[in-house]
Amino acid sequence: MVTAVARRLAERRRRLDAVLAPFRLSPHALRQVKGKMRRELERGLRRDMQGTATVKMLPTYVCGTPDGTERGKFLALDLGGTNFRVLLVKIRSGRRKSVRMYNKIFAIPLEIMQGTGEELFDHIVQCIAEFLEYMGIKGARLPLGFTFSFPCRQASIDKGTLVGWTKGFKATDCEGEDVVDMLREAIKRRNEFDLDIVAVVNDTVGTMMTCGYEDPKCEIGLIAGTGSNVCYMEDMKNIEAVEGNEGKMCINTEWGGFGDNGCIDDIRTEYDREVDEGSLNPGKQRYEKMTSGMYLGEIVRQIVIDLTTQGLLFRGQISESLRKRGIFETKFLSQIESDRLALLQVRRILQQLGLDGTCEDSIVVKEVCGAVSTRAARLCGAGLAALLDKRREDQGMQRLEVTVGVDGTLYKLHPHFSRVLRETVQELAPQCDVTFMLSEDGSGKGAALITAVAKRLRQYLYAMRLSDETLLDVMARFRREMKNGLSRDFNPTATVKMLPTFVRSIPDGSEKGDFIALDLGGSYFRILRVKVSHEKRQTVQMETEIYNTPEDIMHGSGTRLFDHVAECLGDFMEKQQIKDKKLPVGFTFSFPCRQSKLDEGILITWTKRFKASGVEGADVVRLLSRAIKKRGDYDADIMAVVNDTVGTMMTCGFDDQRCEVGLIIGTGTNACYMEELRHIELVEGDEGRMCVNTEWGAFGDDGSLEDIRTEFDREIDRGSLNPGKQLFEKMVSGLYMGELVRLILVKMAKEGLLFEGRITPELLTKGKFETKHVSAIEKSKEGLSKAKEILTRLGVEPSHEDCVAVQHVCTIVSFRSANLVAATLGAILCQLRDNKGVGRLRTTVGVDGSLYKMHPQYARRLHKTTRRLVPDSDVRFLLSESGSGKGAAMVTAVAYRLAEQHPGQSHRVVLGESPKEREAGGEEGETPHLGGFQGGDLPSDRRVTLAMLG
Ligand code: G6P
Ligand code: G6P
Ligand code: BGC
Ligand code: BGC
User: Fold this and answer.
1) Which of 153, 566, 696, 724 has the fewest Cβ atoms within 10 angstroms?
2) 301 in catalytic set
3) Which ligand has the nearest atom to the CA of 441?
4) How many angstroms does the Cα of residue 427 sit away from the middle of ligand 1?
5) CA distance 374 to 358
């Protein structure tokens, strides 16, 4: 008898062990899991794996942990865990830093979790409304941080596209949508209050930040709750999907999806498969389904059903309760496994769940629970060990000391989970000293801290971010300005002057001779000798000298300025030993000039750094000629005055005959392009084209850009040499960009948002932060170390977060500039397209200017936005390698020929082909300035056609 009982017990033991054996993972099996997880973590970071990796490694755009300067009053939502909460979070900064929170838990009924997206978000907004009412704060438009505990692809801190629902959620029409937009729309639908949604945050990230507020070493956030996930601070250089190499960004690993490619199928049991098949997302989140609270009870239930079927439990009777999915919630699992409970109490819990069994049954169920939860903790430990070792190795450390912030019901409530997890980590990552820090306040606090950081930056920078919609609007406005400038009636009052240049063609290859070019108005004053020879093919030889133009000369009398120019020219000719020659001179003068012929330029107004008296309203050719004559030591014949945009178009036109736009993004900004003569009402004639210098720098001088100008733009203007003028230029060009950044930094520092509120005299000095610094800081590799260097020179001791923030400010300011130029350039491109009457424009834009050339990202951004704003165009951007001087010489060459051929008639010179000649010459249908010339070789038989008008 005794032996029969003993045999029965032994048999029962054997069968139970057989069922539970696959749950008892060996150290070897765990190490294998660790290795596989490590591989998946690395794969997820790779750009080429973005679509296919199962561990998604999502960038979160959270670039630092809290530094104690966060402050303000915020609303937080916390959706996706056991409870849905709405919170009000008040954060104080400084020495008495503190966080106060008020929260309310709301239920989300199952039919809403699995209804439509609209219903879900309407419900959320309904809960917010109740909370605001309850707190008596309905009127305030508070900033909101949204903890949304599901995988989201983010392109910025305030955008999150749901990759796929997990856990118990399955609302329709949400996957692939931006959940921030959905929330915003629901708020709009309700039309009762408004909120400023600043950040969307995963619960792991919220947890890391909550713990990071107390312990700066906290760089990992772990959730072991309803779901399972981890986030951590990764080096930017390892995140291929995000531009930039400096600093860190938090990565939401979404490790719950580990194994979805089958890589851990060897350790999955039939019960795991059963649970997966019965879940809302079969085949997905396989690792999560073995490790998190939502599923552990389900695994237990599957095993219990099997054991009951085998007659090992509940007298072989499968009760109604046992058939119910979800009866074993995490909290029951935790209770059953508690050592403090007597068997009888376990039995009572089971009875409450409708599972009426003996004490023996209770022992077995408890053992099953233990096996399942231990496996979960060990698997979770293996995953964490993989991440810890990766971080240790990435940083080249012998030992890694790190804090892991943890939250989640499983970790908090289960009696053994946290211990087993810690032991496993120790076992598998022995070179890591890990402190586990329990998050006491949930993710909402962390989300509020993130919101505080994002909000303070956004406050200043929001207005600088221009949507495509706004840019298209700016483009349309500029197109109207162009029309006004071209019209005879509106030109006198137009802000964008659209100045005729009397240049009617780009070089055609027949130019030759020996010329001097002056190039005044950009960063450098240059004098060049340009020799264009014409053997078999056209070649250009250039010699350049750069001369200083001291500020007192730029700001003194006009006479002194031109005496200085004449003196430099004398020096140059001396050096070239050509003082006895009277070489033709082309004058690149990079300021707005009204011209009625090629060799006359009446300065409308000084711009940029210049403000010499008595020049505005005068002809700069005459002023310079007079200064040269006064010297009497050499003679020069100024044949053409050319804007730098025109010089650039001509320089680039020499290499690419399709070039019909000249663009400058340097000290100042401007563009010229070939316009149909019939549209230029200020110049007689209807046929052919003429280059128009738009002088777009003045765009906005009539108030038409006020809606997009910021307080910083206004401050720049007030402190400039020409207040109220060149307002577009002041938002865009290199003379102002560094100063714009400086003003923003000062404001942020004053509010304690940067440099711990320290402001130094250097930081307060106008001009101390230069545009070249913006370029250096935005370099992808060494940008942040440059930021540190530059800021240190300004006397502040920047933290890493400061450097990241400053880099961000630089990016926003320079991005805005490129976007604005794309909009105005887009208007010109549309005009060209419409002029030609083609569906798709093919053209080349010649570009020059220090900002465009030196800034590491500018050109690419400009090209990209331009193509987006004018999609029906193929635009080639051609960098002018040799400055405007060469182009000016080209213009001069033709003017010179003209003067030689028609002595004494140099007034009203027009460069290019006249309609009459074209008719006579019979080149029907050809555009005036171009033939079939391709590439660099110029056929020597090209005709140059010049005309005298009037
Ligand atoms: C956090 C939160 C939750 C989150 C949870 C995970 O701190 O504030 O919203 O999702 O912990 O735990 P749970 O067990 O509730 O899923
Ligand atoms: C050109 C020139 C300059 C001109 C400049 C714009 O090609 O030759 O004189 O004004 O580029 O650039 P910057 O950055 O010098 O203002
Ligand atoms: C989600 C994660 C989340 C985790 C813990 C998972 O199901 O995919 O985004 O962090 O649960 O709540
Ligand atoms: C001037 C333009 C010039 C541009 C680029 C502006 O300030 O008004 O004539 O083309 O700067 O140098």
Assistant:
1) 724
2) no
3) 1
4) 27
5) 24
